[in-house]
Hints:
The chain is an alpha/beta fold. The chain has helices at about 15-25, 70-85, 100-110, 155-165, 170-180, 195-205, 250-265, 280-295, 305-310, 315-325, 345-360, 365-380, 415-430, 445-450; strands spanning about 5-10, 40-50, 50-55, 85-90, 115-120, 145, 185-190, 225-230, 230-240, 270-275, 300-305, 335, 390-400, 405-410, 440-445.
Amino acid sequence: MSIPRVVIVGRPNVGKSSILNWLAGKLVSVVDPTSGVTRDRVTYLMHHRGRYFEVVDTGGMGVEDTDDLTADVERQIEVGLQDADVILFVVDGKTGVVPLDKLVADRLRKIEKDCVLVVNKCDSTKTDAEVPEFLGLAPNAPVIVTSVIGGRNRKELLDLVVEQLPPAAEDEEQSAQSETSDPLMKLAIVGRRNVGKSTFINSLANEERVIVSEVAGTTRDSIDVRFDVDEQSFLAIDTPGVRKKKSLANDIEFYGLVRAQKSIRRADVVLMFFDASQTISKVDKQLVDEINERSKPCIFVVNKWDLGLEEDMTTEKWAEYLFETFASMRHVPVAFITAMDGKNIRQLINLAQAIFKQAHERVGTGELNRIVQAAVDNRNPPYRRNRRPKIFFATQVATDPPTIVLKVNDPKLFEPSWKRYLLGFLRESTPFEEVPIRLYFRSRVRDDEDEA
């Protein structure tokens, strides 16, 4: 039996996303006064009074989406309703009952689900007098007044949710632990708008979890989707498409940029998506710079490869194009997929697992010093200021990313070109062929220098 789902529904701007964030105690869903901000189903796993349950935010019912995605949003709401064990029907205590509330109520009456009527935005007890007018929307449902701003009745709402949950299954604890346990690998899927990230996510999840549309910028929340490969659990983080900073027209798009950067920081491996039919843009460079700065293992994913083939493109040409553009990322593997038909997706996940493993490898100090000595024997660091650079020993001090410290006589004596040579030599001689390596040159303590 799966973990119970509590689905939050209501017309636009009644505070559904705010309630999810409030219950979760963190920013899970984008909150903005613009109607229709939440389009996909956004979820968060809660634990209260010994019960695990998933809280699901949905788009506003009855909203006319500005990007002509109304049907897609409605389909996501419908899927959420069908999967729900408990429904939180949220209304606005300040505005009173409006016609759209009645339309939502009519829709909920047609499905046999346990429901809680949440009269939100009751920031003062003065608004409580208006609550009776809402009772006709859900005559048989328990009612609670809430205020996210005022912090009113959060625990009481959670108590009420737990009371409405179906009886706990014997394996609920085990299922919840499976859901909450750390996945083997977290994959961030990033890229500019409309490169096929959501299509890829849906292929992984085997369900239409994220709206897929030709409208650029559809996904506005970062959405975590768990999937299993060979009985191992992984987490895919889908992020909003990013546009150039100067084109950030509103707060929603700003949130998208921030969330893409946050997703990169969270990830074990970043899948940087490109469109095979489009040239590399400033946005692509901005995202790759973020990946590079964070020293994240990365795969360049060229999606819509069927379109590239139609233009007589070859994998060799595209790979060289990427490496000419991102000279410092020549170690990054390149994958070519067509997410629409699932082509090469399994191979991509296998590749991600391989570089994830690389990032967590360790090389013993003895072996590492033999490799560094071989690099020096092959090409001595040139003299500088009439002094010869010396490396006394090397040690790996961390993984993810692999971090190597070299104790030397003077770090300033080592030319940047020789450092790049050493980095390349290490890639060829260690397991770190396709992942970032952090390399630090440090002076030995004075006593050691005196002994040298």
